Amino acid sequence: MTIANNLTIKEAAEQLRAGTLTSVELTTEMVNKAKAYFDSLGAYVEITEDLALEQAAAADADFKAGTDKGALQGIPLAVKDIIAMIGAPTTANSRVLVPAWVPAQGDAPVVARLREAGAVFVGKATTSEFACGNPDETKGFPIPRNPWDTTRTPAGSSSGTGIAVVAGLALGGLGTDTGGSVRGPATVNGHSGLKVTYGRVPKSGVVPLGYSLDSIGPMARSAYDCAVLLGTMAGWEPKDPNVAKAPVDDYVAALTGDVSGLKIGLPTEYFFDHPLLDPEVKAGALAAVESLVGLGATSEEFVLPHAELAKDANSLIMIGEAQSYHKRNLQTKWSSYGKWTRANLVRGAIWSASDFSQANRFRQYWSKLVAQAFEKYDVLITPSAPTPAQRPDEITPSKRLLMPSYTGQWNLTGLPALCVPTGFSASGLPLSMQIIGKPFAEATVLKVADAFQRITDYHVTAPSLEGVPSLVGAPA
Amino acid sequence: MTSPDLSKAFVEAALATARIAPSPDEVETIIGDYPKLREIADALFEFGDDLEPALTYDPLDYYPAAK
Fold first, then answer.
1. A396: nearest CA in chain B?
2. pLDDT (tens digit per residue) in A93-118
3. CB environment A34-50: b (16+ within 10 A), e (fewer)
4. In order of start, what are the domains of chain A with their CATH numbers?
5. Quick one: B51 exposed, middle or buried, by C-beta within 10 A (0-12, 13-18, 19+)?
């Protein structure tokens, strides 16, 4: 059977319960596609076919026996290869990570929760090395490519999960986000991706990047599907030192479609007026805001100063924290790191201890400015990124120093931020907006995105994979 | 601001202090990036003079029974 590339978790869950689809059929299709595009799209480091089919069969048996563990039962997912998972290796796409790290972790709590909910794991999805370096083709890992244009980057660091979602190689999955690593792939691959409030989801069992900034977030076609995933992922975990005890909302129940009276703030400075902001990206975000206003929301432009500094402070803190984790390996295994990873990490040796401390003071200063804005607005909306998907040579670490970025500011402040598609460029690349909320207000940002997705179909538009080399039909 | 010579001297000293040994090409790239890296860090010192502590630390975190 052939399953549409734009199937959502919601639709699949309905079909599984109606008996028109089995999890084994669905999983077989996803695994076969993942294998067919293994080299050309580079979504997976490892496809866990045996595990996936075993989980799918168990899900089908549960359905048959009348056991329903919830909307993720029998749903094929991708797990970023920086998150520990029983039954598969965890490499962080690196030749440096000590193999012994993995068995000591077992299932990361978030993986254990999805497993318990009956989800199916298609495989470990490609990540930028240690979540911070562009692919280095000399290291022997799959090279991730954007399904809309394989000469363009799928962004990172949760590249593989993003590719899998839009190419129909999984219905959803896990990413991690320290400066935009869930939202970047969601933006340029054309799906939904939520960076959660710091502490909303337990993050133990993840190879750290910036410990005070890291989060695990859901990635899927729709805000609805992200809500389903988050409902299982979120909540306190006794063994995790960073997770919050804040109560977990019913994120699906919050998706009422009603945004009447919602106050949207548009921070114009930097986010909407930067000279390097692509006009199509800007127009897409503003048109989306107009659509929300048409549904009863109100919007207002305002100035949130120092956004560029906030982006830079996030980078400095992230690299400082990462340098602390990697310092000894950088001394002894420098050439084992990918060239772009070490180009980023080395900056932790260039910035000083006082720079790091001052960045954290700025973090307090800017967080107060943002909190003042949220006294007036329910959500902020910005473009997700300054441009559609770029070529890999346009995003070297040196070039990225000079480019604007719209995501790290919300890691700095620990706030939830959801990126969703707003259309396509004239060249056919996805455009996206970012919806930012108050701490633990994931339900609100998901509701806003869901309201927009009820009147648009960008999030369920799939790339044509014609022309992308596939092993389908090749002799066994 | 920093001159090319100062950038080179600082980067080489910082790498030596960290005991990290990139290739000569990589060192050249870092030296080229250094003025922007320094500009970023210096700009952050214009804010937050009245904000202490930069990070919070609570010794009672390690003695839960005392809380």
1. B29
2. 999 987 767 766 789 999 999 999 99
3. bbbbbebbbbbbbbbbe
4. 9-460 (3.90.1300.10)
5. middle
**Given pLDDT bands bounded at 50, 70 and 90, which one contains residue A474?**
very low
What is the greatest pairwise CA distance in chain B? 56
The ipTM is: 0.92
For residue B40, give how far its alpha carbon lies from the nearest alpha carbon of chain A (Å). 6
Report the alpha-carbon distance of residue A89 to residue A106 in Å, rounded. 11
Give the strand pairing for A263-267 and A379-383: parallel
B51 part of contact set with chain A, CB < 8 Å: yes
Residues A73-92 have a mean pLDDT of 95
- The verdict on A317 touching B (C-beta cutoff 8 Å) is no
Please answer yes or no on whether A357 and B54 come within 8 Å at the CB atom: yes
Structure tokens at A13: 């869950």
Residue A207 has pLDDT above 90, yes or no: yes
Mark yes or no for CB contact B20/A331 under 8 Å: yes
| Annotation marks residue A212 as catalytic | no
Is A316 in the B-facing interface, judged by CB distances under 8 Å?
Answer: yes
B4 interface with A at CB cutoff 8 Å: no
> Which chain B residues are within 8 Å of A343, Cβ to Cβ?
26, 29-30
Domain extent, residue B20, equals 4-66
> How many domains, chain B?
1
How distant is the alpha carbon of residue A283 from its chain centre? 23
Can you point out the beta strands (E) in A64-206? 76-80, 120-125, 172-176, 192-195
Query: What is the band of B67 on the pLDDT scale with cuts at 50, 70, 90?
Result: low
User: Which of A329, A351, A361 would you mutate first to test chain B, the one with the most B CBs within 10 A?
Assistant: A361
Please determine, for residue A234, whether its predicted confidence score (pLDDT) is greater than 80: yes
Q: Which of B15, B36, B47 sits opposite A362 (nearest CB)?
A: B47
Chain A hits for B40, Cβ within 8 Å? 312, 315-316, 401
What does residue A15 show for φ and ψ, rounded to 5 degrees? -70, -35
φ, ψ of residue A45 to 5 degrees: the values are -85, -40
